[in-house]
Automatic annotation (TrEMBL):
GO cellular component terms given for this protein: membrane
Family that this chain belongs to: Belongs to the peptidase A8 family.
Organism encoding this protein: Mycoplasma todarodis
Protein name per Swiss-Prot or TrEMBL: Uncharacterized protein
Transmembrane portions of the chain: 69-91, 98-119, 139-164
Lineage of source species: Bacteria, Bacillati, Mycoplasmatota, Mollicutes, Mycoplasmataceae
Biological process (GO), any one: proteolysis
InterPro entries associated with the record: Peptidase_A8
Length: 219
């Protein structure tokens, strides 16, 4: 239940942020220009660290070239990845993992929604990218891409923390088990010793009784 709440909350917030920023960014150009973009870019602003450049492409696998993998293939692959990530979030052992996987799912679903809803004049489905770094231009991306990039290490950190905790718990369980074994071993030893002492006392008492009887007979 906890995982589901974190997942739904994260998806709602971050998909909303992704879609809102895309709508805002692409409002800087006319619908006619945007509709005919293809893989061309419309430069809106250019700063030192941050620039806004409107680009439409298939998103995932677009670097392989337009049309290399058809829309159906891209959408199927990304949808399967999103489902896998969502299931990972639901069955994660700690909150950090849940948040990391939820963030990845938010990014994946944000771009899946774009591809499903947006169709250009040529009938092609596309994703809206708008962020780039003018000083270190390695392509154009969007908030959904950032969510995937940051979600991955967060999920990995959560996984490592989970493994560490599991290892610690196993060690505690083992030590507890060993302590129990030692306790019962000691208790069994003490019980055995007590039985032997009791037996020795009984033997001594028996000998005393016999000696008394012998003394009586001799008298």
């Amino acid at each position: 239940m906890r995982n589901a709440i974190i997942l739904v909350f994260t998806l709602s917030i971050f998909i909303g942020i992704d879609q809102f920023t895309k709508i805002y960014a692409f409002s800087k150009s006319t619908p006619e220009v945007i509709d005919s973009l293809g893989n061309r870019a419309v430069l809106v602003s250019e700063g030192k660290l941050f620039g806004m450049r409107l680009v439409t492409n298939t998103g995932m696998f677009s670097s392989l070239g337009e049309g290399t993998i058809p829309y159906g293939g891209v959408q199927t692959i990304t949808s399967l990845i999103a489902i896998l990530v969502i299931l990972s979030a639901l069955f994660s052992k700690n909150k950090i993992m849940v948040f990391g996987f939820s963030l990845i799912a938010s990014g994946a679903l944000g771009n899946i929604m774009d591809r499903y809803m947006l169709i250009d004049t040529n009938g092609g489905h596309y994703v809206r990218d708008w962020i780039y770094n003018p000083g270190h231009d390695k392509g154009t991306y969007n908030i959904a891409d950032i969510e995937v990039v940051f979600g991955s290490p967060i999920a990995a950190i959560g996984l490592l923390i989970g493994m560490f905790k599991d290892s610690k718990e196993e060690k505690k369980t083992f030590e507890s088990s060993e302590n129990k074994k030692d306790f019962w071993a000691t208790k069994n030893t003490e019980t055995k010793q007590n039985k032997e002492i009791k037996k020795e006392k009984e033997i001594k008492n028996t000998e005393k009784i016999k000696n008394k009887e012998i003394n009586k007979v001799n008298k």
